[in-house]
Amino acid sequence: MTPPNELPPPPPAPDERPWKDRAGLLDARARAMGALARWYLAPHRALLLWLSTLVFALGWSLAVSGFQFLVKGEIIEHVLGVIFLGLALGATVPSSLGVVSGIRRDVFVGACLRDWAELERDPRTLPHWRVSGGALLWLGPSIVLACLGLALGGFAAFSDVGTESVGTVAGIGLVFVAAGALGMAKAIDYYRLVSRELRPDGGPDAYGPDPLDPDSGYGDGFSGDGFSADGFSDEGFCSD
């Protein structure tokens, strides 16, 4: 997996672009989008989000229990309340900071991915940056998590559970919905890029030279695997 500080930056300004022809642009675009998309939809990032969600939900439960102990007015309950609140801080603060950091990275990488996508549009290079099954891995469990959160919220609102349990159940439901929404938003964002790439737009010329035309020059600079034969590399790609 490419480290975050080695990911491709946004594409250069029009007057600073080094590509001499469309083939070079498509080559650089496919490489950059491939690196960005693989990081954007990495399975371990989904696991980190779900793990952080569970840890935060646990911290929320401990915090509610801690406050309930504190308001009972007994010394033992006060001690237990302080302990529970300390554990809650230990669970919620790191997990929330991790989620916020991940969201910031996702926003930056997603913006870079969209900027590269908007440079051109050619479905023939899609296999070089499409992450097979990556978006589905994010979308499916995120839908389940959001539905579970909505079910917990509905249970807390319409059932006869005690007032001490309503805050816990409703809070956990809200956390699950938020995490599910984050995962679904990322998957939908990626599906939109793929759909844009495949969308027809006025016939063969919509994507530039016809690859079936030997005089089109489309294949210039490409090797058999679809990337440039001149040794184009990812060297120099980095992100802040």
TrEMBL record:
Q: What is this protein called?
A: Transmembrane protein
Q: Where is the composition biased (Low complexity)?
A: 203-217, 225-240
Q: State the source organism's domain of life.
A: Bacteria
**Which UniProt keywords are present, listed alphabetically?**
Membrane, Transmembrane, Transmembrane helix
Transmembrane domains' residue ranges: 47-67, 79-100, 136-159, 165-185
Q: From the UniProt entry, list the residue stretches annotated as the region Disordered.
A: 202-240
